[in-house]
Design goal:
The protein has 164 residues and is an alpha+beta fold. The chain folds into two domains: 81 residues, no CATH class; 63 residues, no CATH class. Helices cover 50% and strands 21% of the residues. Strands 1-2-3 form a three-stranded antiparallel sheet. Helix 1 runs antiparallel to helix 4 and helix 2 crosses helix 4. The longest helix has 52 residues. The radius of gyration is 33 Å and the shape is rod-shaped.
Length: 164
């Protein structure tokens, strides 16, 4: 990837404007590019000055576009692969947390009028890592957060269900 970026940077530094090919027919551009890809440096010296410059200009412009496309495709592949790996790791952790840390608890409590009640709560627990933004990672540490979710199983109809 770095070699592609170096080549692209070199070709962009030539500062060739695509408009220099505006009056040239597309089949002539393709022919000049094929000739440039076929010749060695010594063979190019044997060609007249104007034709040699035309071949070099066409090759530089065409290669700049091809290399830019290759850089974008490589970047997309790298980002896509990283995202898929992170997603699968996150999904695996969540599935482990859901299956391993699900439990029920009996709770006895009194309402506002002093009446005693009984409830069965479904309790789940998970650990989550929260990272600071990329630009702030030196200043702030990542944090491990504990998440607890409790919900009443089969709540009675005469009062609101417990949800915490």
């Amino acid at each position: 990837m770095n070699r592609l970026l170096d080549r692209l940077e070199f070709l962009q530094a030539l500062a060739l404007d695509r408009s220099i090919l505006s009056n040239v027919q597309p089949h002539r551009v393709a022919r000049l590019r094929r000739q440039g890809e076929r010749y060695f440096a010594g063979d190019l010296r044997d060609i007249s000055g104007d034709r040699r410059l035309a071949i070099l200009a066409v090759c530089a412009l065409e290669w700049r576009g091809a290399i830019a496309d290759a850089v974008v495709e490589t970047h997309d592949r790298i980002v896509g692969k990283t995202w898929r790996e992170a997603k699968s790791r996150c999904d695996a952790r969540m599935n482990d947390a859901k299956s391993a840390l699900k439990d029920t608890h009996d709770v006895r409590f009194r309402d506002a009028r002093g009446h005693e009640h009984h409830a069965v709560l479904s309790v789940r627990h998970a650990t989550m890592t929260v990272r600071p933004p990329i630009g702030k990672q030196r200043k702030y540490r990542r944090q491990q957060l504990q998440i607890i979710h409790a919900e009443e199983i089969n709540p009675p109809e005469d009062r609101a269900p417990i949800f915490w």
